[in-house]
Design brief:
The chain contains four helices and eleven strands. The protein is an alpha/beta fold. It has a domain of about 120 residues: Purple Acid Phosphatase, chain A, domain 2, CATH 3.60.21. Strands 4-5-8-9-11-10 form a six-stranded mixed beta sheet, with helices on one face. Strands 1-2-3 form a three-stranded parallel beta sheet, covered by helices on one side.
Length: about 180
């Protein structure tokens, strides 16, 4: 996000805190409060308990588009459904969710940033079931061409993982595992 101007001797405050999932609502509330910035989030595969999200005051991005800092930000929750009890979807179910989001984006002016928990298939994902990305995200990026896609889920300590990749749609795909701070 573009940053607010710095005052002499002060650290710039972000325009928003964006979570790509698997973070507790209490922690997200803490970070957003310290940053004095609005919170936007998607739920990850381990965010199965909705308790606390209503108290956070953030914006759940799942299948929504929000305008913040002059950018249109959209999101999709979850990962590949690899076992019971997670926030997970089959490729087919996610394709339907992604198509609904794409239709909304097309009639409301597109999106600048896509926030998901997992990456698109072949762009920062792994070959094992739990860490496989969604193929339909490739189609979504080709259709909507956002400037940036933010995702988490694939931990940097799982092997040689790129922090940033470029998709054929010219979208920058950024793995925010841990944290990522930068201009969008």
């Amino acid at each position: 996000m573009p940053r607010r101007p710095r005052r002499a001797g002060c650290v710039a405050r972000p325009d928003a805190v964006i979570s790509c999932g698997d973070m507790s609502p209490r922690y997200l509330d803490y970070v957003a409060t310290l940053a004095n910035a609005p919170l936007l989030y998607v739920r990850g595969n381990h965010d199965t308990d909705d308790t606390g999200y209503d108290d956070v005051g953030g914006i759940a991005l799942d299948r929504r588009i929000e305008k913040i800092g002059g950018l249109r930000v959209a999101g999709l929750d979850g990962s590949i459904d690899y076992r019971d009890g997670i926030v997970g979807y089959s490729e087919r179910a996610m394709r339907m969710r992604a198509l609904r989001l794409a239709m909304l984006a097309r009639v409301t002016g597109g999106i600048d940033v896509l926030v998901t928990h997992v990456p698109p298939r072949g762009y920062g994902d792994l070959s094992d079931g739990p860490h496989r990305g969604f193929e339909c995200f490739n189609d979504l990026l080709k259709l909507l061409r956002p400037k940036i896609m933010l995702h988490g889920h694939v931990h940097m300590d799982y092997g040689i993982i790129a922090r940033e990749l470029r998709h054929p749609s010219d979208t920058r795909i950024i793995n925010t595992f841990g944290f990522w701070e930068g201009e969008l």
